[in-house]
Amino acid sequence: MRKSDNAGSWLPFQWDREANVVVVGYGGSRATFGAMAAEQGAEVLILEKGAAGGGNPVCVAGSLLLTSVDDEQTLAYLDWMCGGQTDPVVLRAYLDGLDEIPFSRASRVS
To answer: Which residues have CB under 8 Å from 43's CB, separation 6+?
Structure first.
């Protein structure tokens, strides 16, 4: 590896690597996928933007987050749960998707 010309920015060292499988994000499901691919003989490269992996499964144990009926409060809570690392558009899509789950809005705490 060699230092990037962008030294001092958030960008890490530059590198040149090839793999059969590239996994973007090191949350629970992606870590599992990467491990399974490696067990099958694939060379796996896992990329994570955060300082440490873990994702939401660390916090939610695979359950749905059903929170306040106030969307802005819910978005703020989801942002906090994700450590500020998830694009607000993704959080909004998650929240909007709750409407498609029967009884999800009725189950949210008011």
So the answer is: 18, 19, 20, 21
Quick one: CA dihedral 95, 99, 101, 102, positive or negative?
positive
Is the whole-model pTM more than 0.90? no
Burial 41-58 (b: 16+ CB within 10 A, else e): eeebebebeeeeeebbee
Q: How buried is 98 (Cβ within 10 angstroms: 0-12 exposed, 13-18 middle, 19+ buried)?
A: middle
Tell me the per-residue pLDDT of 65-96, one tens digit each, with 9 for 90 and over: 566 678 898 889 888 888 888 899 999 998 88
